[in-house]
Amino acid sequence: MFLAAIVGAVALWWALDAPDGSGRRMTLSDSAEFGRKMFVWLSFLLMTGAALLTPAVTADLLTGEKKANTLGLLLLTRLSPVIIVRDKALSRIAYMGQLVVLCMPFLFICMMFGGVSSWQIVAVVGSIFAIILTGLAAGLFFSTVLQNYVSALCASYAFMFAYLLVLPTAIGMALAFIRGAEIWLAFASPFMALVLIVEPRFITGPELEALKSAWTGPLGAGLVMLLASVVICTRLLPRHAELRPAAASRGGLTGLASASAWKVLLSVPVLPFIFLAEIFERRRGIGRNPVLWREAAVTKRSGRLATVYVSGVILYLFAGILAICAASGNINLDVLYQIAVAFFVFSEFFLFLAASVTSAVSLTQEREEGTFEVLISTALRTRHIVLGKFLGVLRSCAVLAVFPAVFAVIAGASGRVFPGVVALSIAFLLLQAAGVSAMAVYFSAVSSTSVKAAGLAIVGGIVALVAPMVATAVLADVFGNSRAFEEVLFSLGPGVLPATLLADTPYKMAAPGTLLLSAFAFVSIGLLSLLAATHRLNSETGREGGGSGMSRWLGAARSALSARSR
Amino acid sequence: MIETVNLVKHFGRLEALRGVSMKVQEGDIYGLIGPNGAGKSTMFRILSTIMRPTSGVATICGVPVSQGDKVRKLIGYMPDVFGVYEDMTVYEYLEFFAAAYYIKSKERKALINGVLELTDLGFKKAAMVKSLSRGMQQRLGVARVLVHDPKVLILDEPASGLDPRARIELRELLKELRRLGKTILISSHILSELAEICNRIGIIEKGALVFEGTKEDLSSRLSGLEAICIEVDGKREEALCFLGAHPGVDKALIEDGFIRVRLKGDFKDVPGLLGSMVSAGYRISRFNPEEPSLEAAFMALTKGKLA
Predict the structure, then answer these.
(1) In what order do the strands lie in the sheet with B55-60?
(2) Chain B: residue whose CA lies nearest to A370
């Protein structure tokens, strides 16, 4: 497949007509333009792949050992913690490095088309390695301090998202008044470096010379982060060798009471939300669907602290950036609006991530822990199990929807968007979270391990949310704009719709038809995923096939939703 | 109560069950014994409606296992892995499964307290499942299968990994459940573990039932496999020659300082044998009857039956 893709890319070079659609062969300048565009998309594709894959393959480094209770045994051997952590990190560097090397022929093919310099290839590969090292540092750290793969994965992704996108964007906005500041920001952020490296046309003179070496900054920073992570993990490893005792995993306010000072400090901004969530939870009993209760109450209980810390980080970052803006005198309603939109995207991403990963492992964890067999031997119908998992995860993630909603309201309060648009973006946010979550439940039903299910859910979620928009943009870029074509494709997978409704972008489309089509797409994805998951469980466990009928299934949904405390 | 007729299960080319026909009467404690990989868990999964057989019929209380919804209400299944939610309290865990059997919320409290009392776990009601010992988790597993008051209990290797005390407690609990009228199908790969509590025994090997009957039937089938280990003070070689020539002895050899004697008859002949040794002037310091091992039983029971 790899070789076929290379051959296909070369064949495309020979086969393509000029991009103006005149039917003539490409000239040298056409070819250079095509090569440059291909390079831009390929670079961003590689960056996204590296940013998503590195935490996925690193977050299980030590959580896997903890789950299997083998970390303690490993520490009993003559291997020192330094060797264990170092060699585990090296194995993943080798794996990711191998993937980057495999992708390099594609970058050289872009060079063959023209329009791309050799320093750009070196700089892009350097920036991607910087992202890999950063991802490794985050994955290794969270894998050491957190107890399970899902928490470590979510925390690593949140860190990567903040480091790669939110922080440079927000700081860039805060420093917008300093001319050429972005060049120096590129020395600190691999994302900014990549953006400028692939599109350096408007940069000249000494700034271009500086840009050529900008990738060394993020690479150095990545290396320092990885070394720091190895050192910290080496120190922490013996303390985190075994799973915490049961009492400590209770989470919520009880868990916070025994947490360290910095964790308490981190959770201060979200304490009111935890308090309200606990009051709400205490009022509810198991009800009629125990699976729903377990997902919502027990999973929330154990995962609440991780949620609290990430939410704390988001709020502290928001406050910090506002403070930087205020200190530099660069604060006005426009800046507030832009920062609020950036944080809306960040918290939206975290909501989607938490909902999809939690849903993805909801059934696989039961399989791995041996409880699945017990669950399906009870009188519970498969549609109740699937629905319980889906609604339970949504209920447990509900608190996470508060943050994007707050940022949307702040963006609305700046007066740059209508209040109705804010409400619409929040509604679409919830709809998409439900769609992504339902799709992840299906991946959980068809996967044998949590890692596989989480990977499928993340890839599936990105495809459903972003791919149609990216494909539209690429096609529009290469073959020219077609508004109708763009609208249809965009509506089928409007992953960034809530954000684009808020933000002033070329993709802002508030046509009722487009919104309805988008809502229909996500409701369909959700329903089909849940039906497919029910059917899959029925056929796997040898249950009667008639159980997945739409009318019965909707009956189960009504019954679950009407279930209240005893 | 439980009946299978020509039950066959294939996993690709592997034949996990090869036409198993078995019958468990109401009130029985039926022990299914076999080595690892013999097909016990496959059999139990089919009976618990988790897995479909390739062919053959299995019924619980006359209801075919293909009617899963009806059968699941009649059975309580405990798999060979514990399958406990460690992040819940004991009470929450049992309430979860009570709800999973659609027991009304008003009735749950009394039911759960009842099974906790029966399994002697009442004092651990508020404890996290994770904090329980293995033996207690096993008892919690039994409490779980009792929560909806099923007629039939299907317990896959419930004593595996338990210490002697926990095994005794489990044995007493199973006897109590039998007194309460439950029919129990239980598996193990250790013959002696089930011999004391089961009134009927089935032996499964390579997917085929090689023996089914009462304990007495099994004893009569295994006669000739009984052995005793004798320790004598001095003159061990002479004693070995004496025993080798004794008409009641099939074979005698020295193992780990003991003389291991395989009898031609059964243990009824032991007093006569020991008496003749004493009369011949040998001083017996210790002797120990040795039950036939599972391996020996298989060798005897499968002779000429399996390929």
Answers:
(1) B14-24, B2-11, B55-60, B63-64
(2) B83
Residues near A529 by beta carbon (within 8 Å), at least 6 away in sequence: A435, A438, A439, A441, A442
Q: Is B56 part of the contact surface with chain A (CB cutoff 8 Å)?
A: no
Which of A177, A84, A194 has its CA nearest to residue A130? A194
A121, A111 Cβ separation under 8 angstroms: yes
Write the single-letter amino acid at A62.
L
Q: Give, as one character, the DSSP assignment of residue A245.
A: P
Amino acid identity of A526? G
B-chain CB neighbours of A372 within 8 Å are: 83
How many Å apart are CA A340 and CA A3, to the nearest integer? 45
Q: Which of residues 81-100 of B touch A (CB under 8 A)?
A: 81-88, 92, 95-97, 99-100
- For the question of whether the overall pTM of this predicted structure is more than 0.90, the answer is no
Q: In the predicted model, is pLDDT for residue A167 greater than 60?
A: yes
- State which residue of chain A sits closest to B129, comparing Cα positions: A246
B30, HSE (Cβ side, Cα atoms, 13 Å): 26
Spatial separation of the C-alpha atoms in residues A523 and A529, rounded to whole Å: 10
Q: What is the chain B residue with the closest CA to A374?
A: B83
Here the ipTM equals 0.74
| Residues of A at the B interface, defined by Cβ within 8 angstroms | 245-247, 249, 285-291, 293-294, 298, 301-302, 369-381, 541-544, 566
CB B86 within 8 A of CB B163: no
Residues in A closer than 8 angstroms to B132, CB to CB, are: none
Minimal Cβ distance to B105: which of A378, A381, A566: A566
- Look at A249 and B95 and tell me if their CB atoms are within 8 Å: no
Backbone φ and ψ for A278, nearest 5 degrees, come out as -70, -40
Q: What is the pLDDT of residue A246?
A: 41
C-alpha–C-alpha distance, residues B9 and B4, integer Å: 12
Nearest to A131 by CA among A235, A50, A194: A50
Q: Two tokens at A374?
A: 């017990």
Question: Which residues of B fall within a CB distance of 8 Å from A566?
Answer: 105-106, 108
Contact B174, B4 (CB under 8 A): no
Phi/psi-derived region of residue A415, left when phi > 0, alpha when psi is between -120 and 50, beta in every other case:
left
The SS3 of residue B182 is coil
A377: left (phi over 0), alpha (psi -120 to 50) or beta: alpha
Question: Terminal CA-to-CA distance of chain A, rounded, Å?
Answer: 57
Radius of gyration of chain A (CA): 24
A270 in Cβ contact with A264 (< 8 Å): no
| Nearest-angstrom CA–CA distance, A167 and A54 | 20
Query: Cα–chain-centroid distance for residue A90?
Result: 24
Rounded to whole angstroms, the Cα distance separating A274 from A297 reads 13
As given in the structure block, the two tokens for residue B70 are: 């009806």
Q: Answer yes or no: are the C-beta atoms of A535 and A548 closer than 8 Å.
A: yes
Long-range contact list for A3-6, CB < 8 A, 24+ apart?
A5/A106, A6/A105, A6/A106, A6/A109
CA distance A192 to A169: 8
Q: Do B95 and A286 lie within an 8 Å CB cutoff?
A: yes
Closest in B68, B106, B108 to A544, CB measured:
B68
Query: Which of A89-93, A115-119, A477-481, B67-71 has the largest mean confidence?
Result: A89-93
A89 close to A230: Cβ distance less than 8 angstroms: yes
CA distance A197 to A127: 9
- CB contact under 8 Å between A542 and B96, yes or no, is no
pLDDT digits (tens, 9 = 90+) for A300-323: 565 566 666 777 777 888 888 888
Q: How confident is the model at residue A473 (pLDDT cuts 50, 70, 90)?
A: low
Which are the contacts of A262, defined by CB distance < 8 A and separation ≥ 6?
none
CA nearest to A306, candidates A114, A510, A59 = A59
